[in-house]
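User: Teach me something about this protein's shape.
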Amino acid sequence: MTRLRFMMADWHTSSCGDHVSVLFSFSDLSRPSSVPVASGHEVLIQKFRALYGRQIDIQRKFVIQVFSEDWGQYVDLPKGFAISERCRLRLTPLQTDMTPLGNLSASTTVFFCCDMQERFRPAIKYFGDIISVGQRLLQGARILGIPVLVSEQYPKGLGSTVQELDLTGTKLVFPKTKFSMVLPEVEAALAELPAVRSVVLFGVETHVCIQQTALDLIGRGFDVHIVADATSSRSMMDRMFALERLARTGIIITTSESVLLQLVNDKEHPKFKEIQNIIKVSAPESGLLSKV
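Assistant: First, the predicted structure itself:
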């Protein structure tokens, strides 16, 4: 009882310095806490995860709602919302699974290049082919001004990204030991790109780092497009079943040419000719084709 009184006393204090009191609700649970003034969507999501942890299914999509005194009920968090005073928030799972339409636009897309490193060259099936396709994607990203985030799995032991991939102009190249690319520095980079809704993901291995990155991203509300001709594994069976599983979760399995043409969308696009030059020669038809 003493603890409860202490917590409620904290809640009744509307603000303290540069922090604001917030009541965070999820399912039937509610916990008073505080966040920095001007906290936006990403900070609030992180706070919900810190408070409720594993109770939140990362594979589901959620919406944050704020209690409206005017309406006497919770309403969806407005775009660009930032905490300025004490309030009540709740994290609500979407009740119906919506099939993503898979639309892509350069202004709302980011590319993730996952662990395309030198030490994987002899182990990954058709590695040369996916390097070739990956380079097409990176070139297209530079032409269209699309941000690129590049991970390197334990580079001290596994080496840097292969030299064939031109990383000029990439937004972030970072080391990792976790399989998923969704690390705090990546979330910070995405927070700097508030318009981004879609992630184009490619690299290795399909059933490990690609799969875990994709699941983490859809759990955060992003549409994920995995480029089938730019991702592989040591085992084609692992690759095949990973892609099948991911497709069932609503992740879009696509190809490099489809992605690039979808991003320009129109023959009259000012960058169409440059993208056309990239795909003039078809992407390699490797053994990946019959194993999707």
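Now, about its shape. The two ends are 59 Å apart (CA to CA). The mean pLDDT is 88. If you'd like, I can walk through any region in more detail.
User: That's plenty for now, thanks!
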